[in-house]
Amino acid sequence: MLYREAGQFKTTYAADQQLFPIRQDRIGIAILLAVVFVGVPLAAETPAIAGAIDFNYWFSGVLVPFLIFSLAALGLNILTGYAGQLSLGTAAFMAVGAFAAYNFELRVPGMPTLASFILAGVVAALIGIVFGLPSLRIKGFYLAVATLAAQFFVVWALTKFGWLSNYSSSGVITAQKLVVFGYAVDTPVKRYLLVLAIVSVMALAAKNMVRSSIGRAWMAVRDMDVAAEVVGIPMMKTKLLAFAISSFYCGVAGALYAFAYLGTVEPAGFELDLSFRILFMIIVGGVGSILGSFLGAAFIVLLPIFMDLSAASIERSFGFALPAGLVSNLTLILFGALIIFFLVVEPLGLARLWQIAKEKLRLWPFPH
Amino acid sequence: MLRKIRRAALLGAAAFAVAGTAYSQNEQFVPMNGYWVGPYAAGGSGIFGGLIDYMQMINARDGGINGVKVTWEKCETEYNNARGVECYERTKKRGPTGASLVHPLSTGITYSLIDKGTSDHIPIVSIGYGRTDASDGRVFPWIFPLITNYWSQNTAKIKFIGMKEGGMDKLKGMKIVNIYHDSAYGKETIPVLDVQAKKYGFEVTHIPVAHPGNEQQAQWLQVRQIKPDWVILRGWGVMNPTALKAAAKIGFPRTKIVGVWWSGAEEDVIPAGDAAKGYIAAAFNVSGSNYPVVKEIEKFVYAKGKGEMEDKSRVGSIYYNRGVVFGIVTTEAIRTAQERYGKGKPMTGDQIRWGLENLNIDDKKLKQLGATGFMQALKVSCMDHEGGGSVKFLQWDGAKWNTITDWITSDQSIVRPMIEESAAKYAKEKGITPRDCSKEG
Q1: Does B19 contact A159 at a Cβ distance shorter than 8 Å?
Q2: CATH 3.40.50.2300 boundaries in chain B
Q3: For A24, which of A145, A346, B87, B240 is 20 to 30 Å away at the CA?
Q4: How far is CA B429 from CA B384, B423, B433, in A?
Q5: Which of A288, A122, A300 lies closest to A206 in space, CA to CA?
Q6: Which DSSP letter does residue A180 get?
């Protein structure tokens, strides 16, 4: 009833091709953006609400990492979900972004932060193209193994060549201060807004990209590369572009990870483990879906925190203490079980669940 | 399905609602951000077990620190930087005065917290790990890499080797191989070893082992070719027993292998079985439960059916005792702060920072704490955030770690200039003006 599109007529091509063709979706997105951009920061500034909820914790401990991982998952989803090239090098491209942004800030005097983020993305894209070259010859799991090379090579190079970390004895870098248009981004709420703005713009760009001719070429390659080649899609350009754009997203995510979240990063923080986590995000969230990247990141990043918090508060409210390792192990087991549960219930990911819900809502409350 | 989700959401919301329970005003909150799962759980659970047990003992025996009860909350970091930051943010405002200080128990998390602790005014205490150049307290007022850092420890190791060989001049022309975990942690001692090699005239070869280090045949073949007089093992986790087994295979004497303290717990040698016999490791705390401080924990905590360790045999192990050392440092820093800012009151982060910076655990105090020989005397200052610098050497006899030396001091004439140089570089990069220590009160 609420979600019925009857009566919404499209009279121009522009109206038919817009990002969100259904009016309810547009309203929903507008409300969501208003809440996250205006409502949440305003609430944090209101003393009555800020007294009850620790917004600084939510911003710097939960929301910022969620947004950053969403962006990285989005990057991987472009490559794996849309263009069908399996990659295990996500963390490496993030590392490239983080270290490149640091070096641009360090070595170019007066470099604006946003420009160094963009350049960091470009450097990551170039590295991505280099490691994307094997994709022209090999596919599937074999390609995944080839991208593993990127993972190990980048982490090795960052520890090996002192210049990249400005000769820090342990390869660790400390991000410079965040200044955007002469405006210091130094509080949790400002960092949140900056990350949110960057992620929103890039998500919007991705949403548009996958509907454009590039996106369609990617999907054609994903679904059947021989057929795609036969109909005249240039393999090399399409695949390498997917690697470049995906790495650009991951690079920016890595730069944000270093500058807006951790502050200090070491190459060892970008191990294979992180690549796997991001791959799990898109598998759980939905392969080949923009929304899925966000849902998957929420699932992998937020759920363990949520479970840990609930366990602690349950312990406290009932006044007993469980043995030390038990809670940690239990949450880990539960988390694993939930992943299996969701994948069994909906192998196409959480985004698909949302799609089904949407279809049901269209008919509700009078299904045929 | 929908109803289930709704019920789960309601339960979750209810759980959050009770999360904000009120605290009593006369309490001192210490966050316990550690790890009880994952590949490093042996270290995390042992150290936090000792730390929490010590706090329980202080509460049970003395009623807290001058009557201020210590409270804590555990948070699982999984040894993961992102989770560590989340735990820090979650617990930094708990208790009447916020988090007293943080033990990140991971070099990576320590790095991530340097800026945050500095701006939130919460001391970051990294005992035996973390950022070495933070020992320069002028540049890092909020960071305390206490007791000994990796560089100090390394100079003590070379001193120990010199002692064994019968004098530092005997080191000339010797060959030493440094087998290290190929990570930020493992690489950290390379520069200091190079400086010492030049000073004493020995030859050092650095051989990296890729993480996690369960494959070391190539590295030990190289060792066999070099035929070194000594091997320094800078390992972590599964790399340690593997190295000892590989050494046994090529017949390199284990009595000539010296490990860092993260290679020197029971968990590092028992998996290697007989291959570990005779192996030597540096330590800033000893093993064994025959110390009054451990006995007190057994009496006031375990005898009452409480205590963190499910496996009681781990009480008195290397990791557990290290946690007790963490506990002593934590409570004594708070006590020192109380002596200046008011006994019997909960202290703020600023006050505890003062307490840490003026911490002075001398031999008399150690005796009073029941920790003579258990840990070294410690004197921290604004200039020197390390405070101790000595290490003991332990040898594994196949069943337990035996202490084979007294406290061996480090060579600060090598370490201190390197620390100051590195800290000055950091200060320049970050635009920090170092404090003038003569003005600190």
Answers
A1: no
A2: 22-148+288-379, 150-283+392-413
A3: A346
A4: 21, 10, 11
A5: A288
A6: E
What pLDDT does A357 receive? Answer: 87
pLDDT tens for residues A65-80? 999 999 999 999 999 9
User: Do the Cβ atoms of A127 and A68 come closer than 8 Å?
Assistant: no
DSSP A264: E
Q: Cα–Cα distance between B374 and B72 in angstroms, integer?
A: 25
Task: Give the per-residue SS3 of chain B.
Answer: CHHHHHHHHHHHHHHHHHHHCCCCCCEEEEEEEECCCCCCHHHHHHHHHHHHHHHHHHHHHHCCECCEEEEEEEEECCCCHHHHHHHHHHHCCCCCCCCCCECCCCHHHHHHHHHHHHHHCCCEECCCCCCHHHHECCCCCCEECCCCCHHHHHHHHHHHHHHHHCCHHHHCCCEEEEEEECCHHHHCCHHHHHHHHHHHCCEEEEEEECCCCCCCHHHHHHHHHHCCCEEEEECCCCHHHHHHHHHHHHCCCHHHEEECHHHCCHHHHHHHHHHHCCCEEEECCCCCCCCHHHHHHHHHCHHHCCCCCCCHHHCCCHHHHHHHHHHHHHHHHHHHHHHHHCCCCCCCHHHHHHHHHCCEECHHHHHHHCCECCECCEECCCCECCCCCCEEEEEECCCCEEECCCCECCCHHHHHHHHHHHHHHHHHHHCCCCCCHHHCC
B395 touches chain A (CB under 8 A): no
Considering only CA atoms, give the Rg of chain B: 22
- The CB density around residue B251, as the number of other CB atoms within 10 Å, is 7
Q: Is the pTM of this model over 0.80?
A: yes
Q: Does A50 touch chain B (CB under 8 A)?
A: no
Where are chain A's structural domains?
Answer: 54-271
Contacts of A55 (CB under 8 A, 6+ apart): A43, A44, A188, A189
Model pLDDT for residues A126-167, shown as the tens digit of each residue: 999 999 998 888 888 888 888 998 998 998 888 878 888 887
For domain B150-283+392-413, the CATH class is: alpha beta
d(CA B366, CA A29): 63
Cβ neighbours for B211, distance < 8 A, ≥ 6 positions apart = A268, A271, B181, B182, B183, B239
- Domain B22-148+288-379 in CATH 1.20.120.1810? The answer is no
Residue of B89, B142, B415 best to disrupt the A interface, most CBs of A under 10 A: B89
CA distances to A117, A196, A278, B238, B432 from A252, rounded to whole Å, are 6, 13, 15, 34, 27
Do the Cβ atoms of B108 and A166 come within 8 Å?
no
Residues of chain B contacting A310 with CB distance shorter than 8 Å: 11-12, 15-16
CA B85 to chain A, closest CA, distance in angstroms equals 7
Tell me how far apart the alpha carbons of residues A121 and A115 are, in angstroms, rounded to a whole number: 10
Q: Tens of pLDDT along B92-118?
A: 888 888 889 999 988 888 888 988 898
